[in-house]
C-alpha cells in the first residue's frame, strides 16, 4: 500500500509547486529511487522539463517527457493526461485529480498550492487516500 505525503504550500506563486517538485526529485534521486511526475497537460510537462534543467545550476537531474527516446533510460519521467510508464518508485502528482495508475507506486507525493480551489481539491484527494487506508502524512512548506 502506498505512503502518501502531502506538501502544503503556505504562500508564493503557482510556480512554487514546480520548484518544490524539482527539490523533491533531487532528494528522490539521492535515495537511488526513480520519480514519475504527473501533470494535467503537455504544456505543464514541458514547463517542468525546462525548469528541471535550470532551477539550480549546480544540480543535474536526468529526466525527459514521456514518449521520447530517452524515457527508458532516465530516473525522472514527466507525464501528462493518462500517459503512464511502469518502473518508477515515487509518483509526484501535480495534476488536479488522482491518476488511475497511482496504486502502482510505493510512495505518492501531493503538492497543494495555497489557493482555496487547490486546497479544496487537495482535501478531496486526502479523503480518497484515507478511505483507501493509505498511510498519510503532511508537511507545511
Could you explain the architecture of this structure?
By secondary structure, this protein is an alpha/beta fold. It has a single domain (3-140), classed as Rossmann fold (3-Layer(aba) Sandwich), CATH 3.40.50.10110. It is 31% helix and 25% strand. The chain has helices at 16-30, 42-54, 116-131; strands spanning 3-8, 35-39, 63-65, 76-80, 90-93, 107-112, 135-140. A seven-stranded parallel sheet has the order 3-4-2-5-6-1-7, sandwiched between helices. The model has no long low-confidence stretch (mean pLDDT 90).
Summary tags:
about 140 residues; alpha/beta; 7 strands
Set down the secondary structure blueprint:
Blueprint: E1 3-8, H1 16-30, E2 35-39, H2 42-54, E3 63-65, E4 76-80, E5 90-93, E6 107-112, H3 116-131, E7 135-140
Parallel strand pairs: 1-6, 1-7, 2-4, 2-5, 3-4, 5-6
- Radius of gyration from CA coordinates: 14 Å
Please summarize the sheet with the most strands.
7 strands, parallel
CATH class: Alpha Beta
Q: How confident is the prediction overall: mean pLDDT?
A: 90
Distance between the termini: 25 Å
Order of helices and strands: EHEHEEEEHE
Which CATH architecture is right? 3-Layer(aba) Sandwich
The third-level CATH topology is: Rossmann fold
Amino acid at each position: 500500500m502506498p505512503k502518501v505525503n502531502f506538501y502544503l504550500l503556505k504562500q508564493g506563486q503557482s510556480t512554487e509547486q514546480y520548484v518544490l517538485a524539482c527539490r523533491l526529485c533531487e532528494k528522490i534521486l539521492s535515495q537511488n529511487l526513480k520519480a514519475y511526475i504527473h501533470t494535467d497537460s503537455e504544456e505543464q510537462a514541458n514547463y517542468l522539463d525546462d525548469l528541471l534543467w535550470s532551477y539550480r545550476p549546480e544540480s543535474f537531474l536526468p529526466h525527459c517527457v514521456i514518449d521520447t527516446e530517452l524515457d527508458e533510460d532516465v530516473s525522472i519521467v514527466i507525464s501528462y493526461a493518462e500517459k503512464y510508464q511502469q518502473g518508477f518508485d515515487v509518483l509526484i502528482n501535480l495534476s488536479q485529480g488522482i491518476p488511475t495508475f497511482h496504486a502502482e507506486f510505493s510512495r505518492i507525493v501531493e503538492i497543494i498550492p495555497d489557493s482555496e480551489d487547490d486546497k479544496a481539491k487537495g482535501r478531496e484527494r486526502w479523503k480518497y487516500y484515507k478511505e483507501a487506508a493509505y498511510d498519510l502524512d503532511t508537511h507545511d512548506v
